[in-house]
Design a protein that fits this description.
about 40% helix; two-stranded antiparallel ribbon; two-stranded parallel sheet; about 100 residues; elongated; alpha+beta; single chain
């Protein structure tokens, strides 16, 4: 809290997006653009499904939701520009429950 002329006023502190989330989103977009690009020309609209494993429940569920939102925004941008070699991207999410055993399943 800051004290302004004798009055305590709560000042909101912006929460910075962690570097790991930004790196993950950049890596996902790069991976989608380079590894999943099809060399064949599409006559019909193809859908390219990409699996994403995140902690959507558990202690780090908030981080998982932030990453999921970033992925969704990146996919929307890519699909708006025509997708990857004409194929639309679609993420398929799997919850790892923020546990090792959940990640293995």
């Amino acid at each position: 809290m800051r004290h302004l002329r004798g009055i305590s006023v709560p000042v909101p502190v912006p929460v910075p997006v962690s570097v790991s989330v930004s790196v993950f989103i950049f890596g996902f977009v790069w991976l989608a653009l380079t590894c999943f690009a099809s060399s064949a020309q599409a006559q019909e609209q193809k859908v390219l499904k990409v699996g994403v494993q995140l902690p959507l429940t558990g202690q780090r569920a908030g981080v998982g939701e932030i990453i999921k939102n970033g992925i969704e925004m990146a996919i929307m941008d890519l699909n708006r520009e025509g997708g990857v070699d004409g194929a639309l991207l679609q993420a398929v999410y799997e919850d790892d429950q923020d546990t090792r055993s959940g990640a293995v399943e």
